[in-house]
Design a protein that fits this description.
The protein is mainly β and 237 residues long. Helix content is 0%, strand content 41%.
């Protein structure tokens, strides 16, 4: 394989610089995307690194990668682009999991597709910047076989009220695979589900003790807004 991109971000949020690597291959679909974790040695004495399990992705030839906290939850997301021609998936992201944030173990959720609608091939540049000056980071890409710069607006839902009893009110189970339930609500609630870039996935009304079906959703991290105010994060697996 051909190392296309190597960078030294703090992948797992432990204040030590790790190594993030993407590999292309002349055979479509056989590239790799992985990282080496800094073993927390004294940088003045020389750090050592441990290879971590490769990320599982539908992108056959990983190219450019970026690590930043795009959703403002205190830990990192990893954005990965495709370096393969005629592929349907150009951009994906991996949400860092763990409580509290950031998670020093560097555990990431399953791949979430950010874009599979463009005709871009060979997306060789990914950059984050606040294009619309609204206080959060957006994403821009440039592709080898395209004359366009494409940008994606980061539009997360509002964070809700400041004072809220998360012990009395909440969602469960989390992670969920079939149904998600709402604790503490004694009347019907209006529920809207967003992906991490603020796109509305579904909106419905849930009765007391009724579950929200999530089995048809892709695996990943989602935001749920209840009664247009309170926000929870949940993992579909």
């Amino acid at each position: 394989n051909y190392v296309f991109n190597a960078a030294m971000p703090d992948v797992d949020g432990d204040e030590f610089l790790d190594i993030l690597v993407s590999e292309l291959n002349t055979s479509p679909g056989t590239g790799n995307f992985y990282w080496y974790e800094d073993d927390n040695n004294d940088p003045f004495d020389g750090s050592t690194f441990t290879l971590q399990p490769a990320f599982t992705t539908t992108i056959g030839n990983p190219a450019a990668a970026m690590v930043h906290d795009l959703d403002g939850d205190g830990d990192n997301e990893i954005i990965l682009s495709s370096g393969q021609s005629a592929t349907s998936t150009q951009l994906v992201y991996f949400e860092q999991l763990g409580t509290p944030s950031p998670d020093p173990s560097g555990t990431f959720g399953t791949e979430c597709i950010l874009d599979a609608t463009q005709s871009q091939t060979y997306v060789f540049a990914v950059k984050d910047f606040d294009q619309d000056i609204d206080g959060d980071l957006d994403i821009a890409t440039i592709a080898y076989n395209s004359d366009d710069l494409t940008w994606f607006e980061n539009n997360p839902p509002p964070l809700g009220i400041d004072e809220f009893d998360f012990e009395q009110f909440g969602i469960y189970p989390n992670p969920a695979s079939e149904e998600l339930y709402f604790r503490g609500y004694n009347e019907a609630v209006d529920v809207e589900v967003f992906d991490l870039l603020g796109k509305s996935i579904l909106a419905t009304r849930i009765l007391p003790n009724e579950g929200l079906g999530v089995s048809s959703m892709q695996n990943g991290v989602y935001i749920i807004r209840v009664n247009n105010a309170t926000v929870f994060k949940f993992i579909k697996e």
